[in-house]
Amino acid sequence: MTQDEMKKAAGWAALDYVTPGTIVGVGTGSTVNHFIDALGSVKDKIKGAVSSSEASTVRLKELGIPVFDLNDISELNVYVDGADEIDGSMAMIKGGGAALTREKIVAAVADRFICIVDGTKTVEVMGSFPLPVEVIPMAREYVARELIKLGGKPVYREGVITDNGNHILDVQGLQITEPKALEARINAIVGVVTNGLFAERGADVLLIGTPNGVVRKGA
Ligand SMILES: O=C(CO)[C@H](O)[C@H](O)COP(=O)(O)O
After folding, report:
1. ipTM metric
2. Nearest residue CA, atom 12 of ligand 1?
3. CA-nearest residue, atom 9 of ligand 1
4. CA dist., res. 179 & res. 175, Å (int)
5. Where is substrate bound in this sequence (predicted)?
6. Which CATH architecture has domain 131-195?
7. Mutation test of ligand 1: which of 28, 161, 206 has the most ligand atoms closer than 8 Å to its C-beta?
8. Domain boundaries, given as residue ranges, for the chain
């Protein structure tokens, strides 16, 4: 089974968590693209979606799924998104697709976070995947120096501008044993918009696509 087939299995399994007649929170990435395809198959049964990126918005609209502004809705029962790494406490590194800030905002509104991954994304200790940090452009070099003081090696993701008009630093070399503390510490640096640690608001349900089927964790 290929990695993409495992992503597809996890993406389609997330349909089980979609309640008819509701607006669904939709993340970003290649695994979520499979979930969007799945959502297209039930588009007449849902009210629509809230999207975490311009890329997902385009894909949702192409399938005829109405996309709502987050400011116009007051409740969201599920948010479905992928992850770059997820540990045993359901904390995640996200932002490989540079959509981390909008992802964190939509996740904050949702009652439940359904994380969909292929079997390569589960880890004991996060940090092999470089931690993305979205920064205000004029603060980039200052934030990079502060991240070095925390023991990381920040690398500017050249050529990438986020949907919010900002830059991304990918921080290598971190062994993330205390994800909540590190999430708060990095977010406290002036000029950081947010970082890709989703520990304070981790996943509630994890769907892992594996060659033996989809493994489910959480409730
Ligand atoms: O956080 C993300 C985008 O900002 C994605 O969820 C993460 O990068 C996983 O992507 P993929 O499903 O393509 O492996």
Report:
1. 0.98
2. 31
3. 83
4. 9
5. 28-31, 81-84, 94-97, 121
6. 2-Layer Sandwich (3.30)
7. 28
8. 3-122+200-218, 131-195
